[in-house]
Amino acid sequence: MTGPTSVPRNALLSSKEALTQFASDPLEFEPGTKMLYTSYGYIVLGCVIEGASATSYNRYMHQAIFEPARMAATRLDDVFATIQVCW
Fold this sequence. Notes:
Elements: H1 15-20, H2 40-53, H3 57-66
């Protein structure tokens, strides 16, 4: 079994770095003709939020969403984070 320490730190990319991993890929089909779910849309959303807010996606989500909604146990994906069980 592998744990978080087996994941190279450079595998955790910033939103912009993550976007470059697929930005030049060809489209799977013509926009508006089919639907395919991927998590790539959230990477694009993160880049939009960072550009519009001039802050990191993580900081924005905490300040604008999680804290006002009192979502103290909600966090972005981080393989190095220690998550405490609250129950």
